[in-house]
């Protein structure tokens, strides 16, 4: 990289790193959201909370509806594919 290009790219380098960090965080969040084991744990926690009276039947129904709305994984494994 020549000094002229470095001069123009240098002020943007921190911004590029922040964008890269955002992409990494987004990818991690997407993997966690689509992970069948994670979704199953969230459903189990919601059912336990309902059994202990922490949440209402309506809240539990919302959590279960969100699970049903999740698209299935490309390989056919996922919350929607497991519910069939």
Helical residue percent?
Answer: over 70%
Global structural class: mainly alpha
Number of strands: 0
Unreliable runs, pLDDT <50, ≥5 residues?
A: 74-84
The gross shape turns out to be rod-shaped
Q: Number of helical segments?
A: 5
Reported for the largest beta sheet, the result is: none
Report on this structure:
- The chain is mainly α.
- Helices cover 74% and strands 0% of the residues.
- It has helices spanning 3-9, 13-34, 36-51, 57-69, 79-82.
- Helix 3 (36-51) runs antiparallel to helix 4 (57-69).
- The model is unreliable at 74-84 (pLDDT under 50).
Please describe the topology of this protein.
Layout: H1 3-9, H2 13-34, H3 36-51, H4 57-69, H5 79-82
Helix pairs in contact: 3-4
């Amino acid at each position: 990289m020549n000094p002229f290009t470095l001069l123009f790219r240098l002020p943007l380098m921190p911004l590029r790193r922040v964008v890269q960090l955002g992409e990494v965080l987004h990818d991690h969040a997407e993997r966690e959201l689509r992970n069948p084991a994670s979704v199953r744990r969230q459903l189990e926690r919601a059912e336990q909370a309902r059994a202990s009276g922490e949440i209402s039947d309506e809240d539990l129904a919302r959590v279960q509806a969100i699970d049903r709305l999740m698209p299935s994984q490309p390989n056919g494994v996922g919350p929607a594919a497991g519910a069939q």
